[in-house]
Structures are given as C-alpha cells and as structure tokens.
C-alpha cells in the first residue's frame, strides 16, 4: 500500500546559533550602557540591566526549546501515524484509518483526529485556512485509500 506523509513545523526565522550571537550582542550593548552610567555614579542601572538580560535570556531559551517543534503524519498500511514534538517531548500515536474521525476542535481551533478512543490534535503550525484545506486533503486521502483495489 502506498503511503502519504505530511510535515508541519514552526516557521523559525533565526537558528539557535544566531540567537546566541544576538543575545551576546544585546548583553554587550546593555553592559556598555551600564558602564557609562556606573562611571557617572549611578550603580542602580547595572541591576536593571542584569534583570533585563535575565528576562531576555528566559525568552530566548523558551524560543530555542520550541524551535524544533513539529507534527508529522504518515498514512501507511491502514494506519495514520502521528508524531507530535513539543519542547523536545515526543508523542507518537498510531490511529486506525478505518475508525478515524476528523473534526475541527472549536475550543482549541485545531484538527482533532480520533480513532479507538485515542485523540490527538494537530495543525498548530498552520493558519486556519490551511488547517481546513489539510482536513479536506486528509479526508480525500482516507477515502482514496479505503476504496477496494487500492
């Protein structure tokens, strides 16, 4: 049986290495400004600068942890295998194609795939228009592979 694969991932405009370089540059600029004020006798600016850089570091670490988030769906041999990677945690679910229900989840605005009591939501990295197009495409693909002789 032929297989079909979909891969959805985050649109990251900066790599983790580039992020470290940007953070280093931000720290250097902030430190230079702090030194200017320290020379003028205003030490409190250094404390604010450290607090600011800690907040930026937290935001960058969060960004870097989620940079490789993805959703991969593989339709093969009567099963839809869904792998969801979020913050380096991998969840893999195997759904039976014949029992699968596909629905738009109103509360999360994601696509719900359910089979044999197992439910997984996908489409985090798609716009709402593309989610609906993917739902249509997946339904068509499931119908095509369920016809006798395929």
Describe the structure.
The protein is rod-shaped. The strands form two sheets. It has a four-stranded antiparallel sheet with strand order 1-2-3-4, with no helix packed on it. The chain has a three-stranded antiparallel sheet with strand order 5-6-7, with helices on one face. It contains three helices and seven strands. By secondary structure, the chain is an alpha+beta fold. The chain has helices at residues 16-39, 44-66, 128-146; strands spanning 4-9, 70-76, 79-86, 89-96, 101-105, 110-115, 118-122.
Based on the model shown, name its key terms.
rod-shaped, single chain, 7 strands, 3-stranded antiparallel beta sheet, 3 helices, 44% helix, alpha+beta, 150 residues, 4-stranded antiparallel beta sheet
